[in-house]
Amino acid sequence: MNVETALQKLKEKGYKRTKQRERILEIFVKQDQYIAAKEILKEIQNDFPGVSYDTIYRNLYMLTDVDILEATELGGEKHFRLGCDTHGHHHHFICTTCGKTKSIEFCPMDSINENLNGYDVENHKFEIYGKCPQCH
Amino acid sequence: MNVETALQKLKEKGYKRTKQRERILEIFVKQDQYIAAKEILKEIQNDFPGVSYDTIYRNLYMLTDVDILEATELGGEKHFRLGCDTHGHHHHFICTTCGKTKSIEFCPMDSINENLNGYDVENHKFEIYGKCPQCH
DNA sequence: GTTTAAATCGTAATGATTATCAATTAACTT
DNA sequence: AAGTTAATTGATAATCATTACGATTTAAAC
Ligand SMILES: [Mn+2]
Ligand SMILES: [Mn+2]
Ligand SMILES: [Zn+2]
Ligand SMILES: [Zn+2]
């Protein structure tokens, strides 16, 4: 997904177009990896020295909510990345050094034959952690 | 695993037997669910009004390190549970209301045929979240 | 250009986790 | 049983991510 597509999606949902949002989206579009909130803040401060953490988190959560970003918890911090829209539901290998990801086109839920009768499944997480070829 | 077995394991590793450790282990042995650090603190304060958070965390991490406990991140907080030693490597359904778990005797890594050549896999996480029959 | 609700900023509060260090204690030695 | 010592704990403060909030600004609709 590119920045304009994302901003279009936001417009349709009634969100305003702001310079800060554009900038946040640019950061994510550029890199295929999970990024922590403080890294986003740091990056944005180049253009907007006075950005508030409130602005960062509010937007990250909002963008996750409208499925533009994906979130996960890495090393006790929330990390975000641009959602993959080139294919369907899938999972990721995540490099514990640089945060780059590789898609895993396999969902273990499809293979679950455990008896989960009586259980209400709301969500699931399958992530593989390690070193990518560049960091290995 | 029971408290005495766990304490024996600690002894073999050179850790001392303390009342606080016994108490922490008792809590975990009693319940088949993920518990947050602050809940452990609260529980232990009944017997040791002055326990320090340092004692709680140090022990939880140490017990995880020697494979007596398992840890995971739930809702932004570290949670711990007694490791399952009745069967081999497996995963869990986790109730998002009460923290109780159900073993899932299936590991998606066994079914991974993705090409991960050049990637160094260190770890993986597969968890299913939802409501258990009691909380449903 | 006016209006208005959304968004941002500046700043403070919260809450979990980590760190420090003096005092205590379990386990070993004599 | 008393002495020794390193591990452990308690009291407390620091750190760090995240959340909260009122005042100000701004995007976008009219
Ligand atoms: Mn992907
Ligand atoms: Mn289990
Ligand atoms: Zn990498
Ligand atoms: Zn439950």
UniProtKB/TrEMBL annotation, chains A, B:
Q: Which CDD domains match?
A: Fur_like (cd07153)
Gene Ontology terms, cellular component aspect?
Answer: cytoplasm
Q: Which UniProt keywords apply?
A: Cytoplasm, DNA-binding, Iron, Metal-binding, Repressor, Transcription, Transcription regulation, Zinc
Q: What is its main location?
A: cytoplasm
Q: Describe how the cofactor binds.
A: Binds 1 zinc ion per subunit. Binds 1 Mn(2+) or Fe(2+) ion per subunit.
Q: Which residues bind Zn(2+)?
A: 95, 98, 132, 135
**Which cofactors, if any, are listed as required?**
Zn(2+); Mn(2+); Fe(2+)
Q: Where does Fe cation bind?
A: 89, 124
Looking up SUPFAM superfamilies in the UniProt record yields: Winged helix' DNA-binding domain
Q: Name one GO biological process term.
A: negative regulation of DNA-templated transcription
Query: Where is this gene product found?
Result: Cytoplasm
Signal sequence coordinates: none
Annotated GO MF terms: DNA-binding transcription factor activity; transcription cis-regulatory region binding; zinc ion binding
Give the UniProt family note: Belongs to the Fur family.
State the name under which the record lists this protein: Transcriptional repressor
